[in-house]
Structure formats: C-alpha cells, structure tokens
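Mods, move this if it's the wrong board.
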Amino acid sequence: MVEQAPRVRVEGRPSVLLFSAGFYGTLAAARCFGRNGIDVTVADPGRLGPASWSRFVGRRIQCPPESQAEAFVEWLLALGRREPLQHVLYPTSDELAWLVSLHREALSEYFHLYDPGIDAVYGLLNKRKLFEAGQAVGLTLPRTWFPESEADLDAVSREARFPVLIKPTTQILYSTHRKGQPVQAPAQLAEEYRAFSRDGYAPMLVRFDPAVSRPMVQEFHPEAAEGIYSLSGFVDETGELFEVRGAMKVLQRPRRLGVGVCFESAPVREELAAGLQRLCKHLGYHGVFEVEFIQTKDDFLLIDFNPRYYGQMGFDIARGLPLPLLAYHAALGDRDALRRELNAAREWRGNGEVFCNRIALEMLLNLQRLSGALPADEARQWRRWLGDNQGLTVDPLIDADDLMPTAVEVAQILYGSARHPRAFIRMMVLNR
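Not the wrong board. Structure tokens:
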C-alpha cells in the first residue's frame, strides 16, 4: 500500500530528528513526515539502518549508541547547542523515551519536545510500576510476583500455576533485551531466576532505580502465542483528544514469545480504551502509545505499554491515524493542526487492512517448513491468509514509492545470518 505523494516542503517549520534507524517505527515516521513536507534527519551509530536510506530522509548523521547513555546525552546536548530549536525530538525506543524524560529540562532548551515527564514514562516502562498503576485504575493484569528474597521465590513456587515466565522489570538499557524465560516446574524456578538475574542493566539506570535488577515472575498464558490484542494511538495532555486503533497480533517470531510479524485490524474495545484513558490520566502521560493485552477466554490482561513510536506504527498510519504528525503538532503547540488531523482520523473508515512483514514471513514459512518446526497445514494456512488479503496488506518495509530500505534490510539479514548463524538458526529455522 502506497501513501499519497509527498507534499511540498513548508518553509520555516522545524525538521524532525529521528533515532534507531533499524526500527520499523522510525522508517514509518520518516515516510509520514516526508510525505507531509517536513524535513527529516536520522541519527544512528551505524550507516546501514533501513530508515537512513529512505528517500524521505534529507540528512544522515552518526551518534553514539543509546546503550552508552552518558555519551549519547552529551552528544545530543552538543547537537542542540549547535542547532538550537531546529528539531522536534520524539522517542523511537525505550532508552530514548527514558533519557529524554530524565534530561527534559536541559533538552527542552534546544529541542521541541512533547514529553510527559520521568514519572509518567518510567511508570509505564517499569513493569512493577505499570502493574501497580494498572490495578489502581481497574485494568486486569496477569498474576505477577516481584520477588526480593529466596523466601519470596519459595512462595511463588507454591502459589503460581506453572509454567511461568521470568521477565525483566524493564527493557531500558537492558544488556540482552531478552523478552523472558519460560519455567516449566516449581523446582526449576530458583535456579532459572538466579541465572536470569545475571543479565544486567547500565549503571545509569541502576543508580536511578536500584530495584530494577530484580526480575519479575508472571504466570504464562498460552494464548499469548496468537491472542495478543493491541490498542495504539495518541492522547494529549488534557486527556480529551484521544484516538485509537485496534489490532490482533496473529503471528510472531519466535511464535511463543517474540516480535510481531502479522497483525489484523480489530474493533476498538471501548472498556479497554476507557481503562487506558484512566491509566494515562493517573500517571500524567500524553503522547503516542501502543498497549498490549493477552486475550484469554475470560478477559483481556494488560502486559505492556510502549510510550513511543513502535514497530507496526506504519499500520496505524495507513489506517488513517498519522501518529508522528500528531506528536509533531503537539510538540510545537499547534492545537489547530492537531485537532484537524484528529478530526480527519475520526472520519476514517477501514476495509479490513492487515499488517505483514512479508520478508520475515517468507523466511519463517520457508525455513521452518524445511526444518519441520512448522507443520505443512499451518504453512498452507498462512499462504491462504496472504492471498485472501491481497491489496489490503501494509508492509513495514516494502513500498513501491521508497524501495531502498527494503534492499538495505535484506542485505542486513544476509550479513547478520552469516555473522551470527547460531542465533539465526535458533530463531528463524527452529522457532526457539
């Protein structure tokens, strides 16, 4: 699906500064801005992120990795001092969301921000705080424990229904970025928990929150493999301007606990949307968001809240909700433009669009079929799904109007598989 042709650039408007060139959300934002006549600068430690090669990016610069937090912030402030108030800055990753909020006072002198503050951002990115806030506003969450001692682990072993997942408290500046570790039986919990705890965090985050190094334990719901419902959208600082889209994640890699490959449009469940509005008001959050729920036979369980651009954001842009533009207008205080875009978004009517990372799906179908990790009937089902949705599919990479990012991504995949063959085989071939 190809969006409208680029509009003529509007002189005098600040450009946009984007990071994380390898993230699909960054590419979606760059295309959205470029097609609306807004200059785009992409900063990244490397040169081969797909977003850097979009034809809608006018400037490419190198920066330290966000994992080197002190050096990154120093670099960002230096850029701001050289080019004061020339860019709108909005986060593309958990690290950037936290760093921008943590240094909001200094950064706001040099960049246009739409930042809700560190309490709101960390309250959503820290799963212990999210659990507490979600319960406070009446949302349902999976049974979760936050052990602080061996005695606490023993209690979890007795109370929990196994299998369970050991999960990091947050993904901010996390050394491995592992999603979680399944534990099948109570007797294995203490040993697995100690091993998982060895994955560390950057010193800056540990100084900010010493408790972050203790993982959490959450009951595992098998529905998470194919029953993740998401609400994504935008809320302003008053809480009155609120617009969302619903989706179901129908395929991920690895299939048990991983990154989404295919999504389908889904109706907005009003009770969940109302709960999110209460949650945002409770924490004082405003901006772009993507929130995930596990859909069980009885309920919808909140598991994640991303206060930033996210991987399948191009899906929502194609469904009439230009989230990067909304953040841009809000950062500049242009309420008229913000309301105009939101009013247009509310008038949009869909045709059952779906989202599919076609490159990832083709690799998964072909490689896992060869290895036996994917049954033949399931492979045929996904082929039918692609055929049934021909003409309705939104792809995060493939765009006839912007081809270079796809070529760069393919090259990156080939390079990565050659450099790290075991990891590639484990995830893409064996589904582990």
